[in-house]
Amino acid sequence: MSIGYRRISPTRAAPPPPPPRHGVRHGRISGAASALSSAATAISKLVVCSVAVSAAVITLVSVHNMSPVGDPITPIGFLDRLSLALGVHQQSAVVVVDVGVFGSTVYTYVFHRHVSDGSFHVASETKKQILPGMFDDFERNQSDDAVLLRRANELVGAAMGQVPARCFHGSGPLGNPPLLAKIDPAALRTASREHVDRVVSALTRAFSNSSFAFNPYGGGIGTLSTQEERVLQWFAVNLLTHTLRSFSVGQTAAILNVGAHDVEYTVAVSSSQKIPEGSRVKHMNKLSAFGHSIKLLTLSHADLGLYKARYNDATLSTVFYSI
Questions:
Q1: Which strands sit side by side in the sheet containing 104-114, from one edge to the other?
Q2: Is the omega angle on the peptide bond into residue 19 within 30 degrees of 0, that is, cis?
Q3: 154 close to 103: Cβ distance less than 8 angstroms
Q4: 199: CB partners within 8 A, 6+ apart
Q5: 177 exposed, middle or buried (CB, 10 Å; 0-12, 13-18, 19+)?
Q6: Average per-residue pLDDT in the chain?
Q7: Strand duo 89-99 + 179-183: pairing
Q8: How would CATH label the architecture of 78-223?
Q9: Which residues pair with 299 in a beta bridge?
Q10: pLDDT tens per residue, range 151-210
Q11: Quick check: 319 pLDDT over 70?
């Protein structure tokens, strides 16, 4: 008896049903929400860090500007530039035109000024020489006032090119930078009165029509005596060498002027200082700087000038040669 059999093939497992489409959408939304949450956290941290840095910077700037500037020659630092950008400092400037015999020089001084107390740093100093001068070629152009006015306008143009635009405050408390002119005493000695008057008139017209602050009746144009120049030279040298703030007579510089026949020197002295033997007092001045009362003497030594020294040198050479 044969037994028949039937081949039984293995059953195949049914494939899993595809995931529902709302599940895919849900996964994508969850991923996007997670990314947005991470971005929001990063932005929050960035905002917090920015606020903290800004607070620290404002604190540093405030502390930096609480004390006034002790020495105006102190260099401009990072906090000073930052204070200027934040409006805690203001830029101001002064222009001085030195009208010489054969040319003119335009000096521009730019300052960083504290808004709180008015103290300032010297930020920059620039100068530019303008040729020809106001006193050149007068005999040839004495009938042409337009020449003098054109040269005066050239001085104003040079000043405008050296002053930053932010120094012009218009009708604000600081106003516009002042413009001053100093006529060299040598020009006053060599030029005629007519020439001096016409130069002053041309400078007044040009300066008054400029954007600078100019007062023709308040010392806008003037001159300095030799004594005043010597005092200002002494003050400038000692200011630049930082010896005025902690003033000591022995630490200050002296101004030496070697003339044709005599030697003059300007020094600070104490109240009990004796005059050196062989010296003659030409001028005595008193000034105040950084809370110190300073006494200046200009002394003259005869027969120590340049010509006298050359004469003595030539005389001694002749004597030694004859020996």
A1: 120-130, 104-114, 89-99, 179-183, 221-222
A2: no
A3: no
A4: 99, 134, 135, 148, 183, 191
A5: buried
A6: 78
A7: parallel
A8: 2-Layer Sandwich (3.30)
A9: 265, 281
A10: 999 999 999 999 999 888 877 656 899 999 999 988 888 888 888 999 999 999 999 999
A11: no
Burial group, residue 277, by CB count within 10 angstroms (0-12, 13-18, 19+)? exposed
Q: What is the reported pTM?
A: 0.69
Burial track 28-58 (b if 16+ CB lie within 10 A, e otherwise): eeeeeeeeeeeeeeeeeeeeeeeeeeeeeee
> Are 73 and 124 within 8 A, CB to CB?
no
User: Do 101 and 190 form a contact (C-beta atoms < 8 A)?
Assistant: yes
Give the start-to-end residue ranges of the domains of the chain: 78-223, 227-309
Burial of 244 (0-12, 13-18, 19+ CB in 10 A): buried
**Please, what is the Cα angle at 97 between 160 and 118, to 5 degrees?**
75
Supply the DSSP string of 38-66, one letter for each residue.
HHHHHHHHHHHHHHHHHHHHHHHHHHHTT
Q: What are phi and psi of 163, to 5 degrees?
A: -100, 125
Which pLDDT tens digit goes with each residue over 47-94? 778 777 767 666 666 666 666 666 666 777 776 777 666 666 778 899
One-letter amino acid at 71 equals D
